[in-house]
Amino acid sequence: MIQKKVCMVGAFATGKTSLVSRFIYSIFSEKYYTTVGVKIDKKTLDFQGNNVNLILWDLYGEDEFQKVRMSYLRGSSGYILVVDGTRRNTLDKAFELQTKVEESIGKVPFILVFNKWDMTNEWEIEAHELDVIIQQGWTVINTSAKTGQGVEEVFQTLTNKILNG
């Protein structure tokens, strides 16, 4: 059995916990719970005929009062950088966190997730901004933890990047 640690990283309230809940338990809750510290979950994927155990570290969101502890990232095979499309500042925070993560653990595979795709009428991020990020070579996936759109794709894509480079 292959085991891989994956961290969920982003500003507070971007939907990191909701994405994990949707992926592991196929559920979504309208209630907002702040993650305190780190919450660890596990899911086994069948990937190209292999069982891959994903150990998901859902890190508390970073804001002006609380910084993500880079020590939580040690041993990560990859990470998911989560942005709330309805809050422009979460994209800026994602860029900042990506730099910090790379300085802390080096270059490991990651996916940039634009969450809350079900609320595009409230988005503060323009389509051309997404295009620029994609042109820089980043893998970008639009998701909705609420509807489930793109969630499975995120974890499958990241697993592929981790195992196949």
TrEMBL record:
Organism in which the protein naturally occurs: Nostoc cycadae WK-1
InterPro entries found in the cross-reference section: P-loop_NTPase, Rab, Small_GTP-bd, Small_GTPase
Instruction: Report if keyword Chloroplast is assigned.
Output: no
Instruction: Enumerate the GO terms in the molecular function aspect.
Output: GTP binding; GTPase activity
- Signal peptide positions (record): none
Query: What protein is this chain from?
Result: Small GTP-binding protein
Database matches in NCBIfam families: small_GTP
Which Pfam families would you find in this protein's record? Ras (PF00071)
